[in-house]
Specification:
The chain is of the alpha+beta class. It contains two helices and nine strands.
Length: 127
């Protein structure tokens, strides 16, 4: 069994799509919009077959996303090496995204950084 895709609601659908395409090499479909319900989405495809569905609908509940909340904590992207983790972390920081941690080696041996990117949601960059 494989995970087919992960989905997340966002307020700014275009900005979220552009982030995953620009910084993480995603490829976006043309998008979907249901004029009756106002629901819109993009599927972003990544190497290896993983997909991320970005969604938006009218009147969403957008509560604060504290790091210690229940639910999904982050989405992790393997970028192929420590040098690439360092470079992408620097690039994201220069683009104005908040670096939560790293780059660092964690207690369980991962080399990673964690960035708050899309409306407070965290992206983990790993080797």
């Amino acid at each position: 069994m494989i995970i087919e895709h992960v989905a997340m609601y966002v307020n700014d659908l275009i900005a979220a799509r552009d982030f995953f395409v620009r910084f993480l090499g995603g490829r976006s479909d043309a998008g979907y919009h249901n004029p009756r319900t106002g629901f819109s989405s993009f599927f972003i495809s990544f190497d290896g077959g993983a997909r991320l569905e970005l969604m938006n609908k009218p009147e969403m509940d957008d509560r604060e996303k504290s790091p210690g909340r229940t639910g999904y904590a982050h989405i992790a992207f393997s970028v192929g090496g420590r040098e690439r983790v360092d470079a992408l972390t620097s690039e994201l920081k220069a683009a104005g995204y908040k670096v939560i941690s790293g780059p660092r080696t964690t207690g369980d041996g991962y080399y990673e950084s964690c960035i708050a990117v899309i409306e407070g949601n965290q992206i983990e960059i790993t080797e």
